[in-house]
Amino acid sequence: MAKAKITFTSGLQFVGEADSGHAVVMDGEEKSGGRNSGPRPMELLLLGLGGCTGMDVVSILRKKREPVIGLEVNVNGIMAEDYPHKYTQMEIEYVVKGKGVTEGGVKRAIELSMEKYCSVKATLEGAAKIGWSCRIVEE
Amino acid sequence: MAKAKITFTSGLQFVGEADSGHAVVMDGEEKSGGRNSGPRPMELLLLGLGGCTGMDVVSILRKKREPVIGLEVNVNGIMAEDYPHKYTQMEIEYVVKGKGVTEGGVKRAIELSMEKYCSVKATLEGAAKIGWSCRIVEE
Question: Does the predicted interface ipTM exceed a cut of 0.95?
Fold first, then answer.
């Protein structure tokens, strides 16, 4: 079982700590009574999605000996207009950097992450439709 | 639309940045090729859940003039045994601190968060069954 403790400090600031022992500050925006000292909780879902699938894609490309030297994962999320404003749609753009990286290898790595390995994607797709695109930058 | 950019650095380390401008480092555990320099992406979902509902509960209790002086939110997550190991169940324990805080007020605040306001809960419950409990500590 994964465990996390999220502790209120002041204003709307919370410090969260999970099993790995790393702490993340979260805060609300100023117009809501926060001090904007950390990311919003909803932002952590987008960051977690990009980080989880990014780790998969880098690992798979390395195993396939694709000469990847960089990866940016851009994640856009659309929320429902009505409360509770859940995410209903997410789009992931993978920008893979490396001279000689193959398009087929990149697409297969992303498909493996999306369909088989990415735990965050598998959790979030219960609420949101998740799509993706990719491009390779030879630099 | 909410946007996030998650950038690979080295090993399995990524730095994610969302609209608020705050950056979060994510990393894998050492046995997976990471350096454990930041939380796992899946941990961010638990932290986001605790932070989101925690902000709701603190805000609502303040509006109701309940004398809350502290809040800890403990979140446990159970993942499926099979790949992709999505969350299937989450349990939230709220520990509210404050002399004279009423049980009815606390429960109503949590119900409002769970049923109406918490965007993270509304997103994650697409995959995971989410339960909660609470206790009040007079200190």
Answer: yes
